Amino acid sequence: MGDAQVECGGSGDDRPLSARHPSVRPVGEGLKNSKAGTSHEQTLGLPEGYGVRPAGDEDLQAITDIYNQAVSSGGASADTAVQTVEERAAWLHSHTPRNQYPVIVVQEAGTVAAFASISRFHPRPGYDANVELSYYVELGHRGHGLGTSLVKWGLQTARELGYASLNTVIFADNVGSMALMRHFGFIQYGLLPHAAEDSQGVRHDVAYWYHSLS
């Protein structure tokens, strides 16, 4: 799904998000334990045998491998070269505090099949009420509806956390992800022509989508 390159670093303000923006409430303390991210599991429509849990360092190799599938195949990421585990570790650890910026994995029979994140939309603190959803599904697990479940997770979680909007950035020729955005009522608010190049040297238009949560 989409282009993960708008997953930004910190805002420069180390106070909790709820202190900077009282409308953003620090719910979801369960994200810190083994049930984190699973409060909605029954409503996500995951296929039988799949479960969701918080991502940890033990998942970094799987997260790296899944992400690099998207990089190598082109059409889903503006990274033009595969990433190292260390680079993905920096990405994972940038999601702090984790109960405000969760990262989850979907697993089946103990194997990570997909991952998703809610990230800062922009490093400047004035944007803190808005977040970005990204997700990637392992090649062998595509076609099972995991993308649909992860968009549901993103909307439900961002709404519970009190954010004002959930945003995505998608290559405009990514037909599946564009269709999911329409299905869930996201609104396309921009299109940047020929904006990003993938690992295959193909340039893509980039579409910007948002879903109001207020």
Question: What does this molecule look like?
Answer:
Helix content is 24%, strand content 27%. By secondary structure, it is α+β, with helices and mostly antiparallel strands. Strands 1-2-3-4-5-7-6 form a 7-stranded mixed β-sheet. A hairpin with a 5-residue loop joins strand 6 (187-197) and strand 7 (203-212). Helix 2 packs across helix 3. The longest helix has 15 residues, at 146-160. The protein is globular and about 40 Å long. The two termini are 24 Å apart.
Which SSEs are present, and which pair or pack?
Blueprint lengths: L16 H4 L29 E5 L5 H14 L11 H9 L9 E6 L2 E10 L9 E8 L8 H15 L4 E7 L3 H9 L3 E11 L5 E10 L2
Parallel strand pairs: 4-5
Antiparallel strand pairs: 1-2, 2-3, 3-4, 5-7, 6-7
Keywords:
single chain, 214 residues, alpha+beta, seven-stranded mixed β-sheet, 7 strands, globular, disordered N terminus
Tell me the series of helices and strands, N- to C-terminal. Answer: HEHHEEEHEHEE
Mean pLDDT: 85
What Rg, in angstroms, do the CA atoms define? 16 Å
* SS content category: alpha+beta
- Tally of alpha and pi helices: 5
Give the amount of beta strand, in percent.
25-35%
Proportion of helical residues:
10-25%
Name the strands of the widest sheet in spatial order: 1-2-3-4-5-7-6
Strand tally, please? 7
- Sequence stretches where pLDDT stays below 50 over 5 or more residues: 1-38
Characterize the largest beta sheet: strand count, sense, and whether it forms a barrel. 7 strands, mixed
Distance between the termini: 24 Å
